[in-house]
Amino acid sequence: MNKLHVATVASLLALAAATAGAVTFDATNTASNTPGGQRFDQAVGVNYAKQVLSDASTFIWNTFNQRSPADRKPVDAITLVVEDIGGVAFTSANRIHLSTQYVGNYSGDVKTEVTGVLYHETTHVWQWDGQGKANGGLIEGIADYVRLKAGYAPSHWVKPGQGDRWDQGYDVTARFLDYCDSLKPGFVALLNAKMKGGYTDDFFAQILGKTVQQLWKDYKAKYGG
Ligand SMILES: *[C@@H]1O[C@H](CO)[C@@H](O)[C@H](O)[C@H]1NC(C)=O
Ligand SMILES: [Zn+2]
């Protein structure tokens, strides 16, 4: 194609993306020279990872009942950087960082594990955080709730009914949110929507008619706790 034609196609594509409110997904591995980076390239790969970012985003919009882009957080690009860091992964704004040290040391099906981690981290990109005031355990619980509903809960997670506090975070809170959603399907979507403007534990009572403490007692009682 000649240069003019390429430029025209590029600007048409950019226009189409802008009008559709499309989101772009990108992934790079900056640590392909490390054992974990090599394992990422062999077992997962940047193309698969990009597809997961896209699939996870669609799944999250459905889970949050955000049918149109106007309902969603205004994000136009999500980037995954696979890098030589400790820990597992973290998300800052619209950038997800995945640890090759974690990938290198993981024992088991690393592709499935990375997929689950990416569902969790992609949720952080899209979820509302109560203008920074939301309970941190709830934020992590919602991210793991999405991972659970997508079918990527690891076998080592707590079972339903386990845990000491509703806002313990991660799997404990995810299981509790799953219980709350069973009382009123769409609960998590309503909770996330309320978290756009601020945060109070009273959101649970506003949606379900019971305080979060009472819901936690009911939940524990259901499982004999
Ligand atoms: C395993 O984890 C340690 C500590 O983070 C790291 O130094 C090491 O490189 C990792 N091993 C692999 C194979 O990635
Ligand atoms: Zn998290």
Automatic annotation (TrEMBL):
UniProt keywords, alphabetically: Signal
Pfam families referenced in this protein's UniProt entry, alphabetically: BSP
InterPro entries: Uncharacterised_BSP (IPR007541)
Signal peptide: 1-22
Domain of life: Eukaryota
Protein name, entry field: Secretory protein
Organism expressing this protein natively: Sorghum bicolor (Sorghum)
Top-level taxonomy: Eukaryota, Viridiplantae, Streptophyta, Embryophyta, Tracheophyta
